[in-house]
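Please, structure for the following, as tokens.
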Amino acid sequence: MKLRALAHSRTGDKGNTSNISVIAYEAIDFAHLEAHVTAERVKEHFRDIVTGDVVRYSLPGIGALNFVLKGALGGGVTRSLALDAHGKGLGSALLDLEIPDRTRADPADPN
């Protein structure tokens, strides 16, 4: 299943760093997202554009994951000729990530 089936995203930028938040639509799905949307998976998903580290912050109280992607914006807004210099499209691209279907047999599911 696509990540977008369980979550939406918001993005931001600072220099050459992109920030992507993945927010679960339903609180019950957060554990599944936390188990399957790792910093390593996100780095691999963006392997062609991210030149630095990817760090994940988990915010269970609001059902969100926050990813900081260093070296993701081609030098930053004032240095990049990219059409999407702010990286707003990266949130949509991340939501195309394939994750396992959520089932009751999922060990990451506390219910």
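The beta strands are 7-14, 17-24, 54-59, 64-69. Confidence is low (pLDDT under 50) at residues 78-87.
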